[in-house]
Specification:
Order of helices and strands: HEEEEHEEEEE
Helix content: under 10%
Number of domains: 1
Largest sheet: 8 strands, antiparallel, barrel
CATH class: Mainly Beta
Number of helices: 2
Strand order of the largest sheet: 1-3-4-5-6-7-8-9
CATH architecture: Beta Barrel
Shape: globular
Strand content: over 45%
Length: about 150
């Protein structure tokens, strides 16, 4: 097992996700208070969930019962994908098999890794988000506890 994989293994909690535009603007695709997790398993699977804060609720408690407007808001406020991964010295490659964005299925998502004392940064150059070419920066830390998030 290489050193990058040893360091990545387990679950990480989102600290921040921001994108830098080619002009240097800092953009927060899911807002400055987004939350989420990424988990790397020993058997080479990765699971990613990113969510905007204070997502709008559906009018009914049925994941298939939302109106077109509710579905749009839900889709635009949550990103999820899963698949296998492979580690290299300076990057990890996620091979996507399931995704909230159907265009990602079958793709390789390359993330450059940088470990810091406080956590991990994954970055992706030449990404397209909200119609702009950006460099994505996603900062992670180890979760402090296994506490269930508060109810709204």
């Amino acid at each position: 097992m290489n050193e990058t994989k040893k360091k990545l293994l387990g679950t990480w909690q989102l600290v921040a996700w921001y994108n830098l535009s080619d002009e240097g603007a800092r953009l927060y695709p899911l807002g400055p208070h987004a939350s989420g997790y990424i988990s790397y398993s020993p058997d080479d699977f990765v699971f990613v969930h990113l969510s905007a804060a204070d997502r709008a609720l559906y009018s009914v408690n049925d994941p298939f019962g939302g109106s077109a407007e509710e579905d749009t808001l839900a889709m635009k406020s949550f990103i999820s994908y899963a698949g296998t991964y492979e580690c290299f010295a300076d990057r990890v490659v996620h091979r996507v098999t399931q995704a909230s964005c159907p265009n990602w299925v079958g793709t390789e998502q390359v993330r450059f890794t940088r470990f810091e004392e406080e956590g991990l940064e994954l970055s992706a150059a030449n990404a397209v988000f909200q119609g702009q070419n950006v460099t994505a920066h996603v900062l992670w830390k180890r979760p402090a506890s296994h506490a269930f998030p508060p109810q709204r």
